[in-house]
Amino acid sequence: MLTCTELYNCSENPRINMISLELLREYYETYLMPYKFEYTATDYSDKTSNKINIDLRFDAENFCHLLGIESIVSKNVRKKDLYKYKGKCGFDNIKSGIIDFKFLKSINKKGFNDNNVNYHFIS
């Protein structure tokens, strides 16, 4: 199992058995949440070129959405319980160990595997 620092320094995508959901949460909280990423792009869609500024933040409320947690569990938990798998509540449930890869696989193995087919670690 990789540490957060090892994951940060990884030069290749790690195998799923080398990471945990908690590790991804820790990485997100350590290396993404404290920062605002600013990008400038040029829009050439009309005859003029317009600069577009993009400010990108990584908030706790977006973590589960970015990983597709809700889509994995949505058909297998009651609608009134979906809040536990998204937003800040989902983030906190991962941090406390309530939600992990083993749990997600037990709820919906096919959905978990389908979600991880397109898994790419970006450093």
Layout: helices, strands, pairs:
Blueprint: H1 4-8, H2 21-32, E1 36-43, E2 50-57, H3 63-67, H4 69-73, H5 87-95, H6 101-107, H7 109-117
Antiparallel strand pairs: 1-2
Helix pairs in contact: 6-7
Summarize model confidence as the mean pLDDT.
91
Round the Cα radius of gyration to an integer and report it. Answer: 17 Å
- Strand runs, count: 2
Strand ordering within the main sheet: 1-2
Taking pLDDT < 50 over at least 5 consecutive residues as the criterion, the unreliable ranges are none
Global geometry: globular
Describe this structure in words.
The protein has 123 residues and is α+β, with helices and mostly antiparallel strands. The chain has 7 helices and 2 strands, in the order ααββααααα. It has helices at residues 4-8, 21-32, 63-67, 69-73, 87-95, 101-107, 109-117, and strands at 36-43, 50-57. A two-stranded antiparallel ribbon has the order 1-2. A hairpin with a 6-residue loop joins β1 (36-43) and β2 (50-57). α6 crosses α7. The two termini are 17 Å apart.
Give a quick rundown of the structure:
The chain is α+β, with helices and mostly antiparallel strands. It has seven helices and two strands. The chain has a two-stranded antiparallel ribbon.
Keywords summarizing the entry:
42% helix, 123 residues, globular, alpha+beta
